[in-house]
Design a protein that fits this description.
The complex is a heterodimer of chains A (305) and B (783). With 305 residues, chain A is mostly beta strands. Chain A contains two helices and 19 strands. In chain A, strands 2, 3, 7, 12, 13, 16, 18 and 19 form an eight-stranded mixed beta sheet that branches. The chains are: A mainly beta (305), B mainly beta (783).
């Protein structure tokens, strides 16, 4: 709250001031490989490879094709992933196993070979119950209707757990042709939509409290039951006439420490980039000779009745 | 401990060896301003016949012991007519002297205070309040701390802020004393103004190194500010109307020459002016604003020539607020909203001081103090829904508060056995209560409190020092400061030797050297380093050790033509157990103990300072230049590598001048230049992990920073200018001041960001500037 006021003050003062484009000599390093991959025990291994670029370089990031992407389980090569275009390298057969250590080695001419390692979390995330109701809340001065999900989690005391909560809704989403008046229904397809969430849980910092994923750890409730409330705005319009027609699914992911640190630090960097007083946030990186994340998670899904 | 005993031994032996060849007598008393009765601090008292002398202490008291003989005593103070008195000294005498202010300074050549080359103390500056009031200021608000920023060795931090970074130290390492009481947050309006109202201030001393043993508890500086005592002769007042604030000061005798009072108040009024506009724009539903105020009050009573009592207090507060009320009716349902937001912080201090003169050679001061700093931010929201079946109410309230509270007692003694020794000793104790952040959260079904627990700690110190004139050429100030800190089950102690010496090469030039060890038992957690109210004071604990430092300094000091003073100094300082927030950690993350949110490291700082000051004449002012390096090293920041401190500034120049054209018109100008602040900039960028890589935007990229503070912003420079017209009116003196801050509208860097320029379709670094040219006017009336 205070930070917002401060930023407001600075912005109002800046409106009297001005902005100037300046030349600052920033050294240009050769690009490095960027590995983005999160192993999941219910998906085939999928890796995305791109290259980093100079900070003042404009244009899209370049995807890497033709790289050699090798996956090792406990040090033994299990698969060289096929190039699946668009920077993706996707296994057609291999699903990671809980409790195993995986490593990745990516080689490509013109780049240093990049490597990383991760342990698949052993513990399965455990949702005891989910209650859903409708509430009216005043958040930051805006009064609105929200769906509230009260998610009860049982934590395993034997592990330091890192969690990621997301909520999906499934239903028939209608498409209309708006070129005619009144719009004409084209079709109605069953699909899933990931909801934007917010939470007022006191264990979360501001930057963790909004988004499609709410990340937290078990530091406050290690080994016990914890209730996390998340809210999602209800959008009422002609295309979504009835909230009751949807089915809601709560997804609780138990993640590796590296995944949690990467997500939290990248969220924080994004959150603070407009704050002139904040020290810049270094995003967690577990790729040797490169950038990105090689993370892991397992998932529990709870259908809200 | 062996060092301590040796120092004590040297001191005691030196005092015992006082020459007793001739019968000696003591002249003692107080030096005051003739018109107001205010104490004159550091006034020079000097026997012309044997060239022995002394200076007055903080209370205007002096003591000079001389052999039985004729004495021609000269008492002088800058800006005052000197007084000369000749008599035969054959017994102890009490001599209280009042000096008359001199208007035509330019025509007077006087010996002012003790000349700089005579003083043992180095790395210290006394700034005259008249100079502070004459120099240009931001929006016309005279600011004591901003004037101190113009001195060499003192950096100013970010644009417009009143934070002080002394010789590479942090803002928490300054012991800011108001009438001997520490002020924990010296800022109003997020650091743009300091809490000190110059109308209520008598004297400002800054010490950057070579700390005498009587000071302790902070690593980098002592800023000792004395409030005025109040006019003991007649009722006086000052009223000032400025651009953003107005202030009034009243002072006078309650009983002439016995008891006097001073009260001074200041308040901003933007909120009052803006209130009707805000209401009009929101149909009267919204009330919002910001203001700050401060209040200084002091009473002093002279029981006798031996006993005086001073009671002083300060209250300062900043408050931002908004209240919103609305309601609507929808068929049979009425909904009412009541929202309130508040942000307030402030200091409250009180001091009771009792001066007692035991003998003409032994002066004492007993002080009891209270100091409190509080910060609170809250938001309350209530939504009431009324239908035919009744009323439902949804409430939500969240409040975060933090603060520190001190009760302290100290006893200080000045023992002046003869002109060759000035011994000071004393003890003090402080009871600290830390509240490092509590968050309370309340809604219809939750009522919870989270955060760190309050912690009580006890700090104590004792000291002894002697300003010892070994010979006409050599003078040494040696001493030791012993301090301790008890918190929870931890007990820290620290022995800090201090020594400073000056050696006169001839009557106008001296070489000076000093060594000081310091310890600091409390730390400031700060995100911004600009003195935000959210900065959090925390104690040393078993995990977070006390901050420590040592500093060497070497320099020369010279006086030219009685009115110019020059000092050139070099220093080297090392600091240990410094703390910083971890990347991204902030004051609101109450799920962690503050100790889990910090990194512990060290710092070094070294450099050279040149200070040329002209104190007398139509033209007064100074030129200061600093060449410095300041670095930090934390194991978990910047990959453990040393990095430049945010306010590491290679070159820093300040030129201040006040030119009095005649009794009616005075011009003042300040020009400052500083190497650009150190800044962290990204060198590379890459794709963030995402569920889809088909769409690119800044939100799905990550910036890579090679190191902390590896780049430099553009240099900072600025010219400020003031012109003041003074006129004697029937009922008093009026002064009209027109000022310009940043006169040539320099676009100084405030922060830099990489941004996309849509015109050129290129990414560029964009510098944002904060304060353009800002004119100001103020009207002051002294009655």
């Amino acid at each position: 709250m205070e930070n917002k006021l401060l930023i407001l003050l600075v912005i109002s003062l800046l409106s009297f001031g001005c902005e100037t484009i300046v030349d600052i000599e920033v050294p240009r390093d050769p690009p490095s490989l960027v590995i983005n991959s999160t192993l999941s025990d219910d998906e085939f291994i999928k890796v995305h490879i791109s290259q980093s670029q100079y900070i003042l370089e404009s244009g899209d990031y370049k995807m890497i094709t033709g790289a050699v992407v090798e996956i090792f389980e406990e040090g033994t090569l299990v698969e060289t992933l096929p190039d699946s275009l668009g920077g993706y390298y996707i296994s057609a057969t291999y699903t990671p196993k809980r409790g195993k250590t995986y490593s990745i080695k990516v080689s490509k001419n013109g780049f240093e070979t990049a490597t990383a390692e991760v342990l698949m979390p052993l513990d399965t995330a455990n949702i005891l119950s989910v209650k859903m109701d409708t509430v009216r809340e005043n958040i930051d001065g805006y009064v609105s209707h929200y769906l509230r999900f009260s998610i009860e989690i049982k934590d395993d005391k034997a592990y330091d757990n890192f969690y990621d909560i997301s909520v999906y809704r499934g239903g028939y989403f209608k498409r209309y042709d708006h070129s005619v008046d009144p719009p004409v229904l084209i079709d109605s397809l069953y699909s899933y939509q990931k909801l934007y969430l917010q939470s007022r849980d006191p264990s979360l910092e501001d930057f963790q409290s909004y988004g499609q994923d709410i990340l937290f750890n078990d530091q406050l409730f290690n080994g016990s039951t914890y209730k996390m409330n998340v809210l999602s705005s209800i959008w009422i319009d002609s295309e979504y006439p009835d909230e009751n027609q949807y089915t809601y699914f709560v997804m609780l992911r138990n993640t590796s420490n590296s995944y949690y640190l990467y997500k939290i630090s990248s969220q924080l960097q994004y959150w603070t980039e407009e704050d002139p007083f904040a020290q810049p946030v270094t995003v967690y990186n577990n790729i040797e000779n490169g950038f990105g994340i090689f993370g892991a998670l397992n998932t529990a899904v709870y259908k809200v009745e | 401990m062996i060092k301590t005993y040796m120092l004590w031994g040297v001191l005691i032996a030196s005092v015992i060896s006082i020459p007793l060849l001739a019968q000696q007598h003591t002249i003692s008393g107080y030096i005051k301003d003739k018109a107001s009765g205010e104490s004159l601090i550091a006034a020079n008292v000097f026997n012309k016949l044997n060239l022995k002398g002394t200076t007055t202490n903080t209370y205007g008291f002096y003591s000079l012991t001389l052999p039985q003989d004729s004495v021609t005593l000269i008492v002088s103070y800058v800006g005052y007519m000197p007084v000369e008195s000749t008599f035969y000294l054959d017994k102890d005498i009490e001599l209280n002297i009042e000096l008359a202010s001199s208007i035509e300074l330019d025509e007077i050549v006087i010996t002012a205070e003790e000349e700089i080359q005579q003083q043992t103390q180095m790395s210290a500056v006394t700034v005259q309040v008249k100079q502070i009031q004459a120099l240009p200021s931001l929006m016309g608000e005279v600011d004591v701390l901003k004037v101190l920023q113009l001195l060499p060795g003192v950096q100013s931090g970010t644009e417009g802020s009143s934070g002080l970074y002394v010789r590479g130290g942090g803002p928490d390492q300054n012991l800011i004393l108001l009438d001997g009481v520490p002020i924990y947050n010296s800022s109003h309006l997020f650091g743009f103004f300091s809490v000190f109202n110059a109308d209520a201030i008598n004297n400002v001393d800054l010490i950057k190194g070579g700390f005498p043993a009587r000071y302790g508890g902070r690593l980098s500086s002592v800023i000792d500010i004395s409030m005025k005592e109040g006019n003991t002769k007649e009722f006086k007042g000052t009223a000032t109307i400025g651009l953003i604030a107005s202030k009034i000061t009243l002072e006078g005798p309650i009983k002439k020459d016995k008891t006097s009072f001073l009260i001074s108040a200041r308040r901003t009024y933007i909120d009052i002016l803006a209130r009707p506009l805000i209401k009009a724009q929101n149909d009267g539903n919204l009330v919002a604003g910001y203001y700050f105020y401060d209040l200084n009050a002091k009473i002093n009573h002279k029981f006798s020539n031996k006993d005086r009592l001073y009671l002083s207090g300060f209250l300062g507060k900043d408050k931002a607020y908004s209240r919103y009320k609305d309601s609507y009716t929808d068929v049979d349902r009425t909904t009412e909203y009541n929202d309130e937001f508040g942000l307030n912080w402030g200091n409250a201090i009180a001091a009771a001081r009792w001066n007692h003169v035991f003998t003409p050679k032994l002066f004492s001061n007993l002080t009891l103090t209270y100091s409190r700093y509080n910060f609170a931010v809250f938001t309350n929201s209530e939504t009431k829904t009324t239908t035919s079946s009744g009323t439902d109410s949804d409430i939500f309230a969240i409040e975060y508060s933090s603060g520190i509270e001190d009760f302290a007692a100290k006893a200080d003694f000045d023992f002046i056995p003869n002109p060759n020794h000035y011994i000071r000793f004393g003890v003090n104790g402080i009871r600290h209560l830390f509240n490092p952040g509590v968050l309370s959260y309340q809604s219809n079904d939750i009522d919870t409190v989270a955060g760190s627990f309050e912690t009580t700690a006890f700090e104590f110190a004792s000291y002894i020092e002697d300003d010892f004139k070994v010979s006409e050429k050599l003078k040494i100030n040696g001493g030791v400061h012993f301090s301790g800190f008890k918190v929870e089950n931890e007990f820290y102690t620290s022995v800090q030797p201090r020594v400073a010496l000056r050696y006169l090469l001839n009557s106008s030039i001296a070489i000076k050297a000093s060594y000081a060890q310091m310890a600091q038992f409390i730390h400031l957690l700060t995100n911004s380093g600009i003195g935000l109210p959210t900065d959090l004071w925390v104690p040393s604990t078993s995990r977070v050790k006390p901050q420590t430092s040592f500093q060497y300094a070497l320099g020369i000091a010279k006086t030219f033509n009685k009115s110019y003073e020059l000092s050139i100094e070099g220093y080297y300082k090392e600091m240990d157990n410094l703390i910083e927030y971890k990347d991204g950690a902030s004051f609101t993350s109450v799920n962690k103990d503050w100790q889990d949110k910090i990194e512990i490291g060290s710092g070094t700082s070294y450099g050279a300072e040149v200070f040329l000051q002209k104190k007398l004449g139509k033209l007064t002012g100074w030129v200061g230049y600093t060449l410095s390096w300041s670095n930090r090293q934390f194991d978990n920041i910047n990959f453990g590598k040393e990095f430049p401190y945010r306010y590491d500034r290679r070159h820093d120049v300040s030129i201040t001048s006040i030119y009095k054209i005649n009794d009616r018109i005075e011009l003042a100008a300040v020009w400052v230049y500083g190497t650009g602040n150190a800044v962290s900039l990204p060198t590379n960028t890459y794709l963030k992990q995402s569920e889809s890589y088909d769409y690119y935007s800044y939100s799905n990229s990550v910036d890579y920073y090679e190191g902390r503070n590896g780049f430099r912003m553009n240099a900072y420079h600025r010219l400020d200018f003031n012109i003041a017209w003074t006129k004697v009116k029937k009922n008093g003196i009026r002064k009209f001041t027109l000022g310009f801050y940043n006169m040539y509208n320099r676009r100084n860097p405030f922060f830099i960001q990489a941004s996309f320029d849509y015109e050129t379709q290129q990414k560029k670094f964009v510098q944002y500037s904060l304060l353009p040219i800002i004119p100001s006017v103020s009207y002051r009336f002294d009655f």
